[in-house]
Amino acid sequence: xxxxxxxxxxxxxxxxxxxxVTLVKGGDLHVGDGTVVExxxxxxxxxxxxxxxxxxxxxxxxxxxxxxxxxxxIITPGLVASDNQLGLxxxxxxxxxxxxxxxxxxxxxxxxxxxxxxxAESSLIQVQAIGGVTTAAVAPAGGLLSGQVAWVDLVHGDHxxxxxxxxxxxxxxxxxxxxxxxxxxxxKLHEVLTDAQVFRGRKDAYERAQTRPFAxxxxxxxxxxxxLAGQIPLTLSADRASDILAALDLAKEYKLRLVxxxxxxAWKVAPELAAAKVPVVLQPTRNLPGSFDTLGARLDTAAxxxxxxxPVVIAWLDDSHNLRNITQEAGIxxxxxxxxxxxxxxxxxxxxxxxxxxxxxxxxxxxxVANLVVWxxxxxxxxxxxxxxxxRGRAIPMVSRQTLLRDRYRSLDxxxxxxxxxxSNARPRPDTGAAATTATTAAPPQK
Amino acid sequence: MTAAGDIFERADLLVVxxxxxxxxxxxxxxxxxxxxxxxxxTITPGVIDTHxxxxxxxxxxxxxxxxxxxxxxxxxxxxxxxDGYWPQDPQIDRARAGGVTTAQILPGSANLIGxxxxxxxxxxxxxxxxxVKFPGAPYGLKMACGENPKRVYGDKxxxxxxxxxxxxxxxxxxxAKEYERTWSKYRKDHGEWDKNKDKPAPAGKDGQPGKPxxxxxxxxxxxxxxxxxxxxxxxxxxxNHCYRADEMTQMLDLAATYGFKIRSFHxxxxxxxxxxxxxxxxxAASVWADWWGFKAEAFDGILENAALLHAAGGRxxxxxxxxxxIQRLNQEAAKAMHAGRRMGVDISEDxxxxxxxxxxxxxxxxxxxxxxLTxxxRADLVVWxxxxxxxxTRAExxxxxxxxxxxxxxxxxxxDFELGYNPGAAPPAPVSPxxxxxxxxx
Lengths: 447, 442
Prior knowledge:
By secondary structure, chain A is α/β, with parallel strands linked by helices. Chain A has helices at about 1-15, 125-130, 180-200, 205, 220-225, 225-230, 240-255, 270-275, 300-310, 325-335, 340-345, 350-355, 400-410; strands at about 20-25, 30, 35, 40-45, 50-55, 65-70, 75, 80-85, 135-140, 145-155, 165-175, 235-240, 255-260, 280, 310-315, 370-375, 385-390, 395. Chain A is built from 13 helices and 18 strands. Chain B is α/β, with parallel strands linked by helices. Chain B has a six-stranded mixed β-sheet with strand order 6-8-9-10-11-12. In chain B, strand 4, helix 1 (about 90-95) and strand 5 form a beta-alpha-beta unit. The relative contact order of chain B is 0.16.
């Protein structure tokens, strides 16, 4: 058994070298942008989609082609998990496994780069990947401005290669996040953004120490420049309607590309969000009035926002161990009014667009990174599972630490059936004032 | 779907006087009966959650609402969840809308022995816990292994280690044994005294009549030790928060030593490693479908946990421990069922339905009253829009004792707390059909 396990671990860690060409044939392709191609043919070359079409597309037929048979199945783009700490946190309650936040008291940490901390060997990666998640927007946590979001493809074990792009967004938190008051948090944001603007034009003076003191370190002010130039979005966590409006005002004033994360009460300000074309990253099951910021939380927020024309991204915003459940979240959004196609789009193309990565990710289109999932059935349904997952054109092994544990304990025959308590002399018994009792844990020998 | 073995494609269910009178095809409604048309829908028993903190950790999560952990000492067997239960918790309304009719409200897991649980029904319009206590349900006792007690008390009184945890359990039950002995002695002495009190006292050495013996006085009553004594008599059911296989085995051993049963382990993310031992001990495991990794003792969680225990002949239960998860225990069971089937475990829909109905009722000691659609039981029912194992299905109607407590769009009870918030709230979004080419097969 240990020998078999050894092989399995090897397979997990070093996937076979990719064939130059992979062909996915048959099945209904849901492209990610709402269109569907029946009996699809998808040709992948060097990790990118080289051709996408129907049965009329001529498939290469030389011996170097890896074939993925998708007949009778559903094909979707690889799913994108937004706003999480994948690869930054292994065990939530163990601080020694955390690399998700820059420590210290300073609330402005824009230079903190999540990609520098990402662990490509995290056990969480394959758990999500075999559930269909192929890309993650890995965001730092904490503070007012937490740092830079890393765009990562889920290539398990590839420390140099997993990162797709660093610094695709600056992540931060509104509301009661700083200074004991939301007003203090907003004032600080204004101060920092203004300083970043001043800093942009006065770097030489700064180097000569001829500027007034700034509200943040020069590296943090520098890191904000792409956001101020509108090149990358500012992803701000905000739930209360008034906080979302404040974020919209801030974005307007500084010409920022804004993305709202959380958005429990976003439905209350849907027309303004739609007019500003601001996407909302939300978790549909968050319908509880868990704080005074979320008293308006409801199950149909995604549907209400989509109907108002707001770009909707569906995410798993709890701990990063179950990002795979974005399919269930999307299904629940459908059960509560979001059209099915919009729900699939909300876990594929919309997140890619929200993080500015739509040219490389989010749909099955020629030239994009070949992240793709073949499903046994409706990808949002609880009965379905991925049968094949391709990350950057490679079929990943459908193995995780969890499947290895499952297989180790699939049969308990190899373990001693008896619990230690069958040996009543093994350790002294407490005085129970009663005749010796028989332990119940002594299982009869198993066949 | 009865959770008692039978799944009828098309059937009727007759409720008389709040109890199920008959289940099966072609029933005749008596004159004057209220007829509910459930054609095309699915009817199941009301959902039962063995692990909830609704009412004791109410929303919003304010300091003023934190009533679930009496974290003032590691052993607080004398406290009772019912004394902290706030029936106006708005989370209860969401759970009811998810088909939950009954839940065990537990003290938290800060303490080795956290106190007595209470089993409640999610009836609307409750003004105090007495309005919703499940009639005749036994109490449970919350116990917690592992990380939580040592984290909470490590820098205070201890326990600081798992060694300290086990020592704390032994101490508590040993004291309860000794307490029981003092009461046994008192009862015996008092019986003797009662028998002899009217007899003339024997003469003393000096030939004078002796003084009549004093009436024995009862020992000081200790509600915590009394609770543990009732555990050892089997009258209070033990619900033990415990993640790891090794610790669960140790707890089974400790329970055997003191002569009690652990009714259900809770969370039990490693139940699959000792499925044989749990089955042999007759101890259930209340588990999540897929939670894992948020703490060290949860690191070995797998999707097939419930399925593997089921396959070993054990009693699997899907629980929530979450105000969100409690709204969809049917979906969590679906995930666990499908994960098991994929690895080849034979699990029927009736089996998986029992994971959040009949088996949960057994763990709470109320299986003679609820948990299956069996004539004679209380008519706690859910009418679902489709299969309870589909992500697209919602509970449409929920009944307790045959009375509607939730009717989607018609009867949606709300708490006092939420009155006045969300003025002008948008109506619920209309639902669009799922594309017909989406097969939910396999």
